[in-house]
């Protein structure tokens, strides 16, 4: 029986720190070393992480003028992610910037190249300032990923090279309890997930979404799973939810939901946005309908709670959705998240 991933247990923001000067590296190196040791990483891995943090801080100070942050995340595995995200001018030529010896500020120019060599995986997204009428984020996001046993263990879910997932889940004001929750199950070539948002926030919202993992094991069809969630939530505060199933073998997506959550599906012909049946599971709601799609090429499915704003499309983040799902989740969560609610994003890709 496959293990169920639970975002409350397996996806954690362990530290977040603004980067305004080189001194930020001192605290961040100490934090990442302590976290990595607790998670069982080797001394060599911890040394590499400290060097990556130093390079990231240096890059942000030099190129983004202190307008950025570094985050340390635990993902299933346990995988440790170091995320650098800034609001700088972006990188004009990423391939050139990753070459040793290149620098736009008359330094040694080893930052991005060093980060790539020292990490098990590196994913980069950059966007230069737009001069059009619509204001959009500009800057650079760098994800450096470390896995205890090396690169072969880095995929968040399973080891299939074309089926992957990215998780972002953050509680209101980074408090202890998080009412947003994502359960994930992978069997062979099928990925199933349950994305929930307990009503309100805090301890009772988290409690409402707890103890539902077994439903992903017991039921296969998304409609049956959602009906079981509805029954189990009858004596709780209630929640809204999306159930998704993505199959590599049959090249099919099935998705349905209840309540104020949203989904975005990206195929070769662009992005399609979806909302769901009004109401609350465990209380009153309209009957949900399953959306089923077939696809021939790459498909990216994004589900999000109402803690993530909806007013974006592919034009706001050109090129992002061709990248690793985890980097997509981090960028959307940090840029489009509402500070007044729990926030969560699940990004599943196939192809």
From TrEMBL:
InterPro entries: HATPase_C_sf, HATPase_dom, PPM-type-like_dom_sf, Ptase_RsbX. Residues 27-126 form the Histidine kinase/HSP90-like ATPase domain. Gene3D superfamilies: Histidine kinase-like ATPase, C-terminal domain, PPM-type phosphatase domain. It holds the Pfam family HATPase_c_2. PANTHER family: PHOSPHOSERINE PHOSPHATASE RSBX. This is Transcriptional regulator. The lineage of its organism: Bacteria, Pseudomonadati, Pseudomonadota, Betaproteobacteria, Nitrosomonadales.
